[in-house]
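Researcher: Before we compare anything, I want clean individual predictions. No alignment, no superposition, just each chain on its own. First chain goes here; please echo the sequence and then give the structure tokens.
Model: Echoing the first chain and its structure:
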Amino acid sequence: MKAAAALSALSILASAEAAETVLGAYIFHRHGDRTPKSLAPTNLTTLGYEQVYTSGQYYRSRYLTGSSKIRGINEDTVKLTQLAVTAPVDNVLQNSAMAFLQGLYPPVGQTVQTLANGNSVQSPMDGYQLIPVNTISTGSGSEDNGWLQDASTCGDAKISSNNYFTSAEYNNLLSSTEDFYASLVPVVNGTLNEKDVNYKNAYIVYDLINVAEIHNSSIPDSEVLTNSTLFQLRTLADAHEYGLAYNASDDVRAISGMQLAGEILKYLNSTITSGTAGSSSNKFGIQFGAYGTFLSFFGLTNLTAKNTNFTGVPDYASSMAFELFTNADVSGGFPSTSDLQVRFLFHNGTVSNSSEPTMYPLFGGNADSISWNDFSSGLSKFAVSTTEEWCHKCGNTTGTCAAYASNSNNPSTEQNSSGGSHMSAAIGGVIGAFVTLAVVLGSLAAFMLLGGFRLVSKKALAPRDTPVSETAANKA
């Protein structure tokens, strides 16, 4: 009887697990091990190549061949419409993305193609699969820049990050750590000037020593680098970079996290749209980016409230994943949005089958997964999804943003607090033009009346040459 009950319970559990279907996923991934920022240009190392390749193998086993396989995705031969891979124009990040893809979709073996003239051609590199890595405008040159916002063109975000250098927190750490950083000068003075070894350059100093600890068997004055010193060095670098990446009272500082949120929403929305339309596309989005985006996103989604480790710089090859899934029956087609759920997973460092990612609740909640509607609503509160939104958020008015500059404070794009809509820009412009014309005509009439002037026909005037005044060019 007990055995039968146990079997029944196992059967129920198995059926419950089998009912879950992963419909899509989006991954944000950090690059692998690299050379130090202070010796630019940075390059992906052999160790870094192996780290992201291993991560690609893990996600292959999870989403392409395992129990969490994305419904309908090709296992062995890539179908490019199902996959979207992006990275900034950056040597380390783009190469990391390609290494990851080699693990995700390994070579399929040699194939032979016979041409019309009878000649045969064999696939090179044992059937290596060519998968494009699309570039994104944000974060270009991330790994050659020592300062978080140097890779950003967002004006207000740079101003916000600079404000950290005038904060009480920063100045307290700058003064209280002088002796600590002075003790590290003999370790790094072959690369950094003594005046630069301080909390202002906390991450640069940490990065240089961290790379040396990984790759150099002998480091100058290495006896200084005790475990306690290395821990303090890392902790200070974490505080420095989190301070530059996120501020609760000045959210534009987290612009990279806002953009990531917008990209996640757009991609998973396309997964839902294509699934509803019966298409087999847009199933797996993968983006490589810098650690600053992780920190910004962690702050925006309140992950730091659940675990203070989220205020620290993620290790090389760290990744976070967003899984779109359902427990509804999918035999009849793609489920409705009310049946969709999302869970967030994170792993610090290289993920593998022996060290898998962990689920964490988003937005300060307690549940490991939330409904798609709640997830979408939560991200939408701060997500930046369009160029126009980005321009307005960043206060940029030149270049690409020039087209939106005149609308930066335009109430026609918003609703008032009572819920009523403002007049459209076109109607407002017409009304404004008539008001201006009435003012001009009124002023002219008064001027003529008081000055004794009158209107006369052009024919009554003697002809003469009149110089044409130049008009000022419009400024973008």
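Researcher: Okay. Second chain, same rules.
Model: Second chain and its structure:
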Amino acid sequence: MSIIRVDAHGPFHHRAALAMLAAHAIPGAEELDGTTYRRILTIDGEPALVTITLDPGGLTAVTDPSVDDPAPVAALIRRWFDLDTDTALVDRKLAADPVLAPLIARRPGLRLIGYPDEFEAVAAAVIGQQVSLAAARTFASRLVTAYGNRYAELGAFPVAAALARLGPAEIQQCAGLTRARARTLHEVSRLWAQGTLLHGVPAADARRLLLDIPGIGPWTADYLLVRALHDPDTFAPGDLVARRALGLDRKAAAARSPAWAPYRSYALLHLWTDAAYR
């Protein structure tokens, strides 16, 4: 096994990160125990069990089997957990807002926890459209059981090519999705089977690309800019949780958000965390 230490730049609210991971964890694919999180990652083209222990200074990852070069794994984890961001700078900017100030005081060092794989992020967002987190986890777990590669008693989320080979009807029957959602998941699987589409693309272009996919609307596109692209300056005015927390309608929430630039994504995450990831 290999032990890889990755330190955070600035404060890291590791318990909020764990709460977010727990809220979205797919049964059979992800496990949490205290401050430890486990899942399968593909490293050098092969599956590996990665056990990550989070703490206020960053995290320690243990890979089984060992890796020849830990640098790419450390880089993936840094991006996944947003560890290079200076959260002290973000917190100072957002604390000027009277609604956000108490949230930041409760959870300094909140980071944009994303996904280790772009297709998994997009597929999870599609699966979770207009259903509860519990239902989304159940649907995703069925796909992992049926089509995910297994290693060390856990299953990996299916790769895009595996789902692309299925028809929408097969995806619907397996996961229990609606017909429309199954069609969208099949389409994103087909597109991502050809390669990563969002990484390195400017946020505005990525949003247009996502909105061109049938079944992906503005909320899902904005959500994916935050969770898949790690864009620091996206706000989703259509997000019901955020609007309720602000006590504003869509138009008023959109008008207020420019004051949080260039860290609107972090403002959105604070609102989400306070409402849903406690």
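Researcher: What stands out in the second chain?
Model: The two ends are 33 Å apart (CA to CA). Additionally, The longest strand covers residues 46-55.
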